[in-house]
Amino acid sequence: MNRFLNKLIKPSTRAFFTEKVNDPGYSFFTRIHGYVYGRWPYLYIGVGTGRHPMTSLIKPLFKVLAGNRKKSGKNQTQKKIEFANGYHGKALLVDEARKMVRVEKSIDLGDLEQVIPYTRAREIILKNPGHIAALECPCRASRENPCLPMDVCLIIGEPFASFILEHHPKRSRRISGEEAVTIIEQEHKRGHVQHAFFKDAMLNRFYAICNCCSCCCGAIKAHRHGVPMLASSGYTAGIDYENCLGCAECSRSCQFNAIKMIEKRPSIDSRQCMGCGVCVDKCKQGCVSLKLDPGKCPPLEVAALLERSG
């Protein structure tokens, strides 16, 4: 019987289900949720964004899996916050994204309460961080005319990378840290934003770096509609008006609609700005810069965190 089950169940599935088995806060029900999310990400994201033709039939089941069963006394705002606490992204400066995929040893940075301002899913535990899979983006796959290329979701560490590679061999590939850096740099040049993603059902921790565009990304669209699932990098953009030509390139490139042109001068809404740095590199005059914003959560600085953890 055991031999039959070992043949039937993929090694990565066994690894996923045996991780955190002694954690009383990580239930079997949550583990099933994580399995469904990783096993059928295109269906999951398609239903979540309302783009899948079976959305009306499947969404109630997914709400149960996500623990969003209808509860009395909770308004829409509370429900949105509860959802975001379990599934969210942290904006990264491109240099920090590079460092994340270049980590060479397994690390446990624990619960980053200040850096990741959510009540759940805020641990960075990387097992075999050199194991990276490039996955075709489920958000882009749900669009009729998606941004290209497709394989820009970087699944990092175990058991996540092996799970994706074993279950989605036609839509994923194993890549090196340097290949991951190339993907990040190319996406940044295209004006796309790097986010570190965390999910409670994915062992309550960091599992991926996604390269997000506002036209395809479900997280950015949800954030714009009041689901607070994206955290700032910790920086806010500022303009040097003395050298600004009013070309509006910074405004056009902003994925968060944080820069508006007012009388041919860019104006930044600091509340909307995620400090991703796309506008900095798009300004040919060098008029845009990022400044640490004490009003926002601190940056995710990989090297500093590693040094602090010893």
Description:
The radius of gyration is 20 Å and the shape is globular. The N and C termini lie far apart (45 Å). The model has no long low-confidence stretch (mean pLDDT 90). It folds into 2 domains: 2-233 and 297-309, no CATH class; 235-292, Alpha-Beta Plaits. The protein contains 14 helices and 13 strands. Helix content is 37%, strand content 20%. The chain is α+β, with helices and mostly antiparallel strands and 310 residues long. α4 packs across α5 (55-65) and α7 packs antiparallel against α10. Strands 6-4-5-8-7-1-9 form a 7-stranded mixed sheet, sandwiched between helices. Strands 2-3 form a two-stranded antiparallel ribbon. Strands 10-13 form a two-stranded antiparallel ribbon. It has helices at 2-8, 11-18, 28-39, 41-48, 55-65, 76-86, 94-101, 138-141, 160-167, 177-189, 218-224, 249-253, 278-282, 302-309; strands at 87-92, 107-111, 123-126, 132-135, 153-156, 172-175, 193-199, 205-212, 230-231, 235-239, 259-262, 265-268, 288-292.
